[in-house]
Design a protein that fits this description.
The complex is a heterotrimer. By secondary structure, chain A is α+β, with helices and mostly antiparallel strands. Chain A contains 4 helices and 5 strands. Chain A has a domain of 96 residues: Alpha-Beta Plaits (2-Layer Sandwich). Chain B is of the alpha+beta class. Chain B is 45% helix and 10% strand. In chain B, helix 2 packs across helix 3 and helix 3 packs across helix 4. The longest helix of chain B is centred in the C-terminal third of the chain and has 17 residues. In chain C, the strands form 8 sheets. Chain C has a 7-stranded mixed sheet with strand order 16-15-28-27-26-17-18, sandwiched between helices. In chain C, strands 1, 2, 3, 4, 5 and 6 form a 6-stranded mixed sheet that branches. In chain C, strands 21-20-19-22-23 form a 5-stranded parallel sheet, covered by helices on one side. Classes of the chains: A alpha+beta, B alpha+beta, C alpha/beta. Chains in contact: A-B, A-C, B-C. At the B-C interface, helix 3 and helix 4 of B face strand 7 and strand 9 of C.
């Protein structure tokens, strides 16, 4: 009886711990997430960013092509006209309002593909959790890249 | 033209003058000539070209906006239509005020080979203006033109309806001296063309 | 202008398929019969072809007697090529594909390709044709032509010269359709530009159309500038409720907000054109002053209230008061609204004080014309103006008051040589193409009309003394011109057009009667057209103190607008209801209007936005606008057309017919109409001229309502009217 117990119960346990013991020496796969972060793949598509030219002007010209390409219809663009006193982007037109509903977005990247100026890009920030549904509507101020100094 | 338009702002363009507000400047003779032309054609539209020649004569060689408006008013056409015709043809002087004499230098192949640009440069230096410009005293306007169809006399100048060629510095000096004292050739040319039109309109 | 010049047909072989087409039809139209398409830019079916863009090149040959086909050495422009016998057309060959690529490459050389910011992007023929037929790349690497962007040609039209492909559609439109010739090509070659004289204001009354026919984004809508892209927009058909013509339009809206209007094709009414009043005159949909909830006046000021409270308050002041209450409305409500309004007042409140005329009393004229003289007030339609020998435009600025009638009249002159007589006291657009211009002294309309009747040989009793010389003396119109106009009017079949604006003076009403009599005697047709979207409907549906629905004379007439306001000012009218109108701004006598609104005990203001009269109101009711509710409108030519709901109503605003129906229900419990469709059924049952009008019949070009049954025309009393002047 005790032999059976040793063979059927203790041996697999010992074998199991053996694996653990062997792995102790090798590199760990798990990372300590909030403190440590894994590097993202090159083509990862997460949170949208509206980029700027080096001069600080917005790339977005409010053409609404992203909204037209979006299969989830989650982008709303409202354009307005640049003036010489208040110039946001090169050319005549800029986006006055630019909103993305992140709850609807499927991160397909079509908006990035459609953008004629390369204004909207999907970058690697994936931490999009929030508490209120309203907070998932990202406005232009949230999406726009800060001016680099 | 103004800058970019502003969203929502009212963009007030100047209004075209109304017929009754025009300052009509045609002389008795010009009105009589225009009436003679009108009588010949079934439509007044046909008189736009000769009418513009009359206006060019009456307004001293240049078709100003007022001159165009007057022709349009007298022929009951829209201003824009007559302006479109006037700005199409290069012999109507719409772009800027021209001098009393328009010196046109042919720079096409034969004249070029025979030194048209030397002639042109000499003229530019002598008059102190470039192509398409008028001397400050309002006497001469210099222009570059395409082939004048007198290659045997290259290099060639045209003043009014007269050809001068072949020309060199000496001939140019003499010509300019002569022109300084002669009556304006631009209006003369316009008058000659009006006469040609009127002659063609006479019943056979 | 794909005008078929004769009924002969010719056999044309297109891409190997032989078809018969009318002789002289343009090839670009013929291929449509086979469901094929030739790309075009400059060609427009309603204008003369010019062959400027070369986009429609086709290969053409002719069948020889021996059966072989001899092709022309070069491709031909399909838009200027009339079909002729034995013609062989190839639209789909390798060479044609190459030609189209070449043409597009040339067109795009100077085109800035700023599609992402261009308002035309997404609905641009140049984009579409380039995608379908064009090259994928350009070999042009040099500098493009540059011009100023976004030049404001007028407050409505923005010109971007860089984008222009010089097709000449806009220039031809102003020359051939609207007739003002305000746009023309200036300069030549690459610097050719469509522009106004000296870049002055483009003040055409039809300037909005050039925006729609521009095949690129060169002429764009300044009001729509950057407000949306075509794929953001939703669109629904509707009709214009600003002009009286019933112009068919597309309502474009985005996220429930009205954005812009475009012309919708209706061959009977507007073809595809719109007037600027229509295209740019609907801004009130987005007004910040829209009323959203009913309001009751309390001691401290206005307080929001529920509909049922408001109804109770209104009933307390209106029910059972009979002739002590009244309503003034404006004829730009739908037929259903107007019908329910008069029903509420006649059946519910037992009051006959109903009027839809704020600025003039033309009822007496219409009533006289129809009942005493036995003549209809509107005898013409818009579409028939295209094919008449002559037209007389009398005392109206037709392009302002009746834009679509004006365009059709001009088309008749331009294509079929209608002889137009323009009789106005001031210069109008009609003068431009008028055969005879009669410029009379203001206030002499009736005497001129009498002179015309005399000169045209239509013997009207009592008008014999108005020979041309006497008329010249009275009106200042040269006698020879009157004779000339009379000669034109001798031939039967002319159309005599005037509008209600003539009826503001008694002289004008007499002129109208004489013209109607002249038309009847000489075999012409006469129309005195309304000025509001539903004037004709308001008349038919009895929105008048002395007429019941169907034009039946009211034996117990109520008060008209002026009497009501006077009574209100004296405190004799206890309660007044203003529906969609503001007497303070629209009634000619502002002092009286102010006094009336101050002194009336109970004032209901029902409007779509906060107007001045709200200051005096006891109750303010929010109502919907035509595009926010279902309904029909009767245009000035008596055409009933449907305006289906496009937008949602703001806040608690209700359709007017529903407000009236709900009140009526509280007075007389009966089955209420559940929708405007039910109201229309009731109208067609009760109003004889509307018989046969139902929502099922209103798809398509709309329904012309019947003329009221009148007795035998009797012109005996006509001559006497003139002595009253």
């Amino acid at each position: 009886m005790s032999f059976e117990v040793l063979r059927d119960v203790a041996k697999p346990i010992i074998a199991g711990f053996g694996i653990t013991a062997r792995r102790l020496a090798s590199e760990k796969v798990t990372i300590q997430y909030p403190e440590e972060r894994r590097e993202q793949f090159v083509r990862t598509r997460w949170r949208h960013v509206l980029t700027r030219y080096d001069s600080g002007l917005e790339r977005c010209i409010g053409c609404s092509l992203c909204a037209g390409a979006c299969p989830a219809r989650c982008i709303y663009v409202q354009a307005a006209e640049n003036t010489n006193e208040d110039r946001r982007s090169p050319g005549e037109r800029y986006a006055e309002r630019y909103e993305i509903n992140m709850l609807r977005c499927i991160f397909c990247g079509y908006c990035q593909e459609a953008c004629p100026t390369g204004a909207i890009v999907l970058r690697k920030d994936f931490e999009l959790a929030n508490y209120e549904r309203e907070d998932f509507i990202y406005t232009k101020e949230m999406l726009l890249e800060p001016i680099r100094r | 033209m103004s800058d970019l338009i502003q969203l929502g702002a009212v963009n007030e363009r100047p209004k075209a003058p109304r017929g009754e507000d025009l300052q009509l400047k045609f002389s008795e003779k010009a009105i009589a000539q225009l009436d003679a032309l009108k009588a010949h054609y079934p439509e007044e539209k046909a008189c736009i070209l000769p009418g513009l020649w009359i206006a060019q004569r009456e307004y001293g060689g240049t078709l100003t906006a007022e001159a165009i408006a007057e022709v349009a008013h007298r022929l009951h056409r829209s201003y824009a239509e007559v302006e479109g015709v006037a700005t199409f043809y290069s012999m109507y002087n719409t772009a800027h005020a021209v001098g009393a004499h328009m010196i046109e230098v042919c720079t096409c192949l034969s004249c070029h080979v025979c030194g048209a640009y030397r002639v042109a440069d000499y003229l530019k230096e002598k008059l102190g203006v470039g192509f398409g410009e008028t001397t400050p005293d309002g006497l001469f306007t210099l222009h570059e033109v395409e082939c004048l169809n007198a290659c045997d006399r290259a290099p060639l100048l045209q003043v009014g309806d007269q050809y001068y060629g072949p020309v060199g510095p000496a001939e140019i000096d003499a010509l300019l001296e002569k022109l300084r004292t002669s009556p304006p050739t631009v209006t003369q040319l316009a008058d000659e063309i009006v006469k040609v039109h009127l002659k063609a309109e006479e019943p056979r | 202008m794909a005008a078929v010049v004769s009924t002969d047909t010719v056999k044309v072989t297109i891409n190997g398929v032989e078809i018969e087409v009318p002789k002289g039809e343009l090839i670009v139209e013929s291929v449509k019969r086979l469901g094929l398409e030739i790309p075009i830019f400059c060609y427009h079916p309603r204008m003369k072809p010019v062959g400027m863009c070369r986009m429609c090149l086709v290969e053409v040959g002719f069948k020889q007697p021996d059966g072989s086909v001899r092709m022309m050495p070069k491709p031909q422009a399909g838009c200027t090529l009339p079909a002729s016998d034995n013609m062989v057309v190839l639209t789909d060959t390798e060479a044609i594909h190459r030609d189209r690529k070449g043409v597009l490459e040339f067109l795009l050389i100077n085109h800035p390709l700023d599609c992402p910011i261009c308002d035309r992007g997404g609905e641009c023929p140049l984009q579409n044709n380039t995608l379908s037929y064009g090259p994928s790349t350009s070999r042009f690497i040099e500098m493009k032509r540059h011009a100023h962007k976004a030049f404001p040609l007028s407050q409505y039209v923005t010109l971007d010269l860089e984008r222009c492909i010089q097709c000449g559609r806009c220039v031809r439109f102003t020359e051939e359709i609207s007739g003002d010739s305000q746009l023309a090509f200036r300069f030549r070659g690459a610097s050719m530009q469509p522009a106004t004289y000296q870049l002055t204001d483009f003040e055409s009354k039809f300037s909005g159309n050039v925006i729609e026919i521009c095949p690129v984004g060169a002429l764009t809508n300044a009001k729509y500038r950057f407000r949306a892209r075509p794929w953001d927009l939703e669109t629904k058909p509707g009709i214009c409720t600003v002009t009286p013509c019933g112009t068919n339009v597309w309502f474009d809206y985005r996220a429930g907000k009205f954005i812009r209007l475009n012309g919708r094709t209706n061959e009977e009414v507007n073809e595809e054109w719109t007037a600027d009043r229509t295209k740019f005159g609907h801004d009130f949909y987005n007004s910040p002053n829209r009323l959203k909830a009913p309001n009751l006046r309390t001691e401290t000021g206005f307080k929001g209230a529920g509909w049922s409270d408001v109804y109770a308050e209104i009933l307390a002041h209106f029910e059972g008061k009979g002739s002590e209450v009244g309503v003034i409305t404006e004829a730009n409500l739908s037929n259903e609204d107007l019908f329910m309004l008069q029903k509420l007042f006649r059946k519910g409140f037992a009051s006959q004080n109903i009027d839809h005329r704020l600025s003039g009393g033309w009822q007496s004229f219409e009533e006289r014309l129809e009942n005493k003289l036995g003549l209809n007030t509107v005898q013409t339609t818009i579409a028939e103006l295209e094919n008449v020998p002559a037209s007389l435009v009398f005392a109206t600025s037709l392009a302002d008051e009746q834009p679509m009638t004006f365009l059709r009249l001009r088309k008749g002159w331009f294509q079929n040589g209608t002889k137009v007589i323009s009789a106005t006291s001031h210069p109008t657009e009609v003068d431009q193409f008028a055969h005879v211009i009669l410029r009379y002294k203001p206030g002499t309309e009736a005497r001129l009309a009498a002179g015309l009747a005399h000169a045209s040989g239509a013997a009207l009793e009592g008008l014999e003394k108005f020979n041309p010389e006497a008329t010249e003396q009275a009106t200042g119109v040269p006698a020879n011109l009157i004779r000339e106009a009379g000669e034109i009017l001798r031939e039967a079949g002319a159309r005599i057009l005037t509008t209600h604006s003539l009826l503001t003076t008694s002289e004008g009403s007499v002129a109208c009667e004489i013209l109607a009599g002249l038309a009847h005697k000489a075999g012409h047709k006469f129309s005195c057209l309304g000025l509001k979207a539903n004037t004709a409907g308001a008349k038919e549906l009895g929105l008048l103190p002395d007429t019941l629905p169907g034009g039946i004379k009211n034996s117990n007439p109520g008060k008209d607008t002026r009497q009501m306001l006077e009574d209100a000012a004296r405190g004799k009218l206890k309660a007044l209801w203003l529906v969609n109108c503001d007497p303070l701004t629209d009634f000619p006598d502002r002092d009286l209007a102010e006094k009336a609104l101050e002194n009336v005990e109970f004032l209901v203001v029902q409007h779509h936005q906060a107007i001045e009269a709200c200051e005096y109101a006891s109750v303010v009711l929010p109502m919907t606008l035509p595009a926010e509710q279902d309904g029909t409108f009767t245009s000035s030519e008596r055409r009933v057309q449907r305006m289906a709901p496009v937008l949602s109503a703001p806040g608690e605003a209700k359709a007017s017919w529903r407000i009236f129906a709900e009140l009526l229900l509280r007075i007389q419990p009966s089955t209420p109409p559940f929708g405007p469709k039910d109201v229309m059924e009731e109208i067609s049952r009760e109003v004889p001229t509307f018989a046969g009008v139902n929502y099922g019949a209103l798809d398509g070009p709309g329904v012309l309502i019947a003329q009221p049954e009148l007795g035998e025309p009797n012109l005996n009393s006509l001559g006497g009217t003139l002595s009253k002047v």
